[in-house]
Amino acid sequence: MPKIKTADGTSLYYEEAGIGTPVVFVHEFAGDYRTWEPQMRHFSRSHRCVTYSQRGYPPSDVPSDPARYGQDIARGDAIAVMDGLGIDRAHVVGHSMGAYTALHVGIRHPQRCISITAAGCGWGSLPDAAAREGMRKVALENAKMFSEKPMAESAAIYGDGAMRHPQKFKDPRGYAEFIQMLSEHSPQGHALTMSMLQARRPTFWDMEADLKKFSVPLLIVVGDEDESCLDGSVFLKRTAPTAALLVVPRSGHNITSEEPAAFNAALADLFAAAEAGRWLAHRPPA
Asked: Per-residue pLDDT tens for 120-145?
């Protein structure tokens, strides 16, 4: 079973397919390395594609120490995967929690990035302090649920949020596969990821100064029925100089598997433009 060790000794499971320009996929809170199967199958025909399970998600290690979880640690893990596979630069594609991590990689390690994709990103990022605190309270309540209930029960509850209903009703088969995958996760891993990463990470408004200096080609993708991510996605578009925004109609949070054709087409355009140095070709030279 292929694994890479991070700086603190945590082992991360990964899979790769294809040859060519590297693409590294970073999954969401309710996903794992399998989340990206529609993209792995499509892009491995032309690119070297890597998907991995983050710490806390078997078959990667599930550290029991809360201090071994956090946004900076997640960013470091993404770089550790690239280092472990000898990848100097890559397209980094993140979804939801993974999109936050992809953005932090783009901010702190722009030289390692050909492009960044932030899909379904923005939960918990609100300009109003009271609303943000409310989101953090929800995150801690979710962490408590994962630590106290059987994983299958928690998965059924967490996976039935309004942001995931578009897939539930338009694609019941795909939604059932998503819930099954979620039910196989680690309760401890989810509780610690939610309490130490989701509840504590900086919001987009906290990151505004860094986002204004963002230099890597950036694609933002959001479903128009993913209410918790719409405002954050628009904020990203208005703040990061290299950002483009795609809003997919009648779609929710599970955008990568809910509408894989639209998502893959947008990625293909980004990859081609970024690799050719033409992502900002619509603007006059600086």
From this structure: 999 888 778 787 888 889 999 999 99
